[in-house]
């Protein structure tokens, strides 16, 4: 199944060519037209008030994408939650529940915050307010969840791949047309410090949609390296000049690779798995073999992957330290705009 998913993702992102790929891309294009029609009908139904969204009894903030993965949404949700806490608010995070790794990471990072998981997010919203007494609900991956009304709609765009090939799922990575950004109250462009960013393209599109004045720019700043078994910090300098192997199963592994390189590491080998991949012990048997061949000093993983990998208890048999890079969501442009939009949700 993993190989099938990998193959189809390569078609969606135009990394596969040849006669067979061309035929399959044609099939996926037809399916994407059907998908796009359904999305437009659903969005139009709520826009024209044919469907009435549920109005929660507290403030609702949605943080989501118009593409499939790659924007760093989980870390941004953590950053938003901490900002709200610092403002004296009592937030809860609502997840649909399809990404176990996201839930585990949120639970680990936000241990004092209610993290509610379930496909019925209206029920979760009621539970958050009446059961936990929160004053703010964060809809994680909520931009396409029209059933709940929101007070602030935040959409993330990956600066290196904001719109893919401009095609819908499954021919491309778009969940909605680019014009859906007109619904967003804030557009946060993430990873603006990455290589090969497409900022001119992003601002050109947003200016066309009259959303250029609602843009905030952000990065994911390396914060610390942690040994995943003991959870102890080793310092960002631990991998400076060291030979490392990087392992990831995230939407955009190139940014992770760049951050590791910026810390001075010598990247000898890299293993890239599809987003939300469930690791198996045999994966690390192969990884361990390659690491020993190249004389690797550290295996470096993302914080999101670490919560899955440490459950496999593979660190001791490998005899190579596995460390996770923790990053911090940092707004580097228009922080005042971001703060003003948040403050506007809570009249004095």
Describe the 3D structure.
The protein has 348 residues and is α/β, with parallel strands linked by helices. The chain has three domains: 46 residues; 176 residues, 3-Layer(aba) Sandwich (Rossmann fold), CATH 3.40.50; 105 residues, Rossmann fold (3-Layer(aba) Sandwich), CATH 3.40.50. It is built from eleven helices and eleven strands. It has an eleven-stranded mixed sheet with strand order 3-2-4-1-5-6-7-11-10-8-9, with helices on both faces. The longest helix is centred in the N-terminal third of the chain and has 29 residues. It is globular and about 60 Å long. The chain starts with a helix and ends in a 5-residue tail after the last helix. The model has no long low-confidence stretch (mean pLDDT 93).
